[in-house]
């Protein structure tokens, strides 16, 4: 956990559905107008999990308790190491979602719909499928 990393994402299940954010339609950002998961870049010396939870609060207004996180794994990318987590909250948590200042809208969709969607960020489709496959995660927390 003390290894450097650049950012973290969270596959946040609200009941059986996944919370997704439709990215801004701005050609200056990666994956404009695509469906994405909450998360982003590391701030200071925060841990990967703290990064994912902070970003989720900023982007969806939800405070996800660390104990709701069921899985995490580090991935090597060209731009630096990134973490991918999965957490589960009850369906009622959807009523508390408030879109932050990034993205056009938020949606709840089935994980299968996200994985199959032609305008979802491909690397997160793959990572979500890996989690759903039952693959072993890494140490986090």
Task: Give a quick precis of the structure.
This protein is α+β, with helices and mostly antiparallel strands.
Secondary-structure topology with pairs:
Elements: E1 7-14, E2 17-22, E3 35-36, E4 39-41, H1 48-60, E5 69-75, E6 82-89, E7 105-109, H2 111-116, H3 122-132
Parallel strand pairs: 1-6
Antiparallel strand pairs: 1-2, 1-4, 2-3, 2-7, 5-6
The biggest sheet, with number of strands, parallel, antiparallel or mixed sense and barrel status, is:
7 strands, mixed
CATH topology grouping: Nucleoside Triphosphate Pyrophosphohydrolase
Radius of gyration: 14 Å
- Total separate domains: 1
From the 3D coordinates, which CATH architecture would you assign? Alpha-Beta Complex
Structural classification: alpha+beta
Distance between the termini: 8 Å
Bin the helical content. Answer: 10-25%
- Under CATH, the homologous superfamily reads Nucleoside Triphosphate Pyrophosphohydrolase
* CATH class membership: Alpha Beta
> What is the average per-residue confidence, as pLDDT, rounded to a whole number?
95
Unreliable runs:
none
């Amino acid at each position: 956990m003390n290894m450097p990393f650049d950012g973290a994402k969270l596959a946040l299940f609200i009941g059986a559905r996944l919370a997704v954010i439709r990215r801004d339609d701005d050609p200056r950002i990666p994956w404009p107008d695509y469906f994405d998961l909450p998360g982003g870049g590391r701030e200071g010396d925060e841990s990967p999990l703290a990064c994912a939870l902070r970003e989720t609060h900023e982007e969806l207004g939800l405070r996800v308790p660390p104990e709701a996180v069921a899985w995490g794994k580090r991935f090597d990318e060209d731009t630096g190491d990134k973490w991918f987590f999965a957490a589960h909250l009850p369906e009622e948590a959807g009523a508390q979602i408030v879109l932050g200042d990034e993205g056009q809208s938020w949606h709840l969709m089935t994980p299968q719909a996200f994985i199959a969607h032609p305008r979802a960020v491909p690397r997160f489709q793959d990572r979500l499928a890996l989690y759903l496959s039952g693959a072993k995660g890494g140490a986090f927390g």
